[in-house]
Amino acid sequence: MTKTVLDVGNCSPDHNAIKRMLVTNYNVEVLQADQWSDTQRILATKAVDLILVNRKLDIDYSDGMEILKSLKSGEATRQIPVMLVTNYPEHQQAAVEAGGVYGFGKLELNSPQTHERLGQFLTSR
């Protein structure tokens, strides 16, 4: 069964690298959103299995944690796992404290730890 991942706030080169890693390793469809309004529009029409949020949105450099917090406070979205995309452990910890799951950084796309984290949501059981 194909899973759906929504990637929020990454520039085109980073989105393409993340998408390539995901489709190479998992049976997934990867959608892209630039900001909160795009995220809301996509989630209103499509069920997703995992949301990745960049720590700083490429479109305006706003804080991706605000999107994570909005997702975790929304009744329709609070059960969807959300990972922050950042190389900084302190930001990963803040994301977990806000209700997210520990994510990964762009420097760790192919690390075993990244695939262990992603696999729990993207590997069919």
Overall shape: it is globular
Q: What's the architecture, going by CATH?
A: 3-Layer(aba) Sandwich
* Number of structural units classed as domains: 1
Distance between the termini: 10 Å
Order of helices and strands: EHEHEHEHEH
The overall pLDDT, averaged over residues, is: 96
The main sheet comes to:
5 strands, parallel
Percent strand equals 15-25%
CATH superfamily: Response regulator
Across the major sheet, the strand order is 2-1-3-4-5
Residue stretches low in confidence (pLDDT < 50, at least 5 long) are: none
Helical content (DSSP H or I, runs of 4+): 40-55%
Indicate the CATH class: Alpha Beta
Task: Please count the beta strands (DSSP E, at least 2 residues each).
Answer: 5
Q: What is the structural class?
A: alpha/beta
Number of helices: 5
Task: Give the radius of gyration.
Answer: 13 Å
What fold name stands as the CATH topology? Answer: Rossmann fold
Spell out the blueprint of helices and strands.
Blueprint: E1 3-8, H1 12-25, E2 28-33, H2 36-45, E3 50-54, H3 64-73, E4 82-85, H4 89-97, E5 101-104, H5 112-122
Parallel strand pairs: 1-2, 1-3, 3-4, 4-5
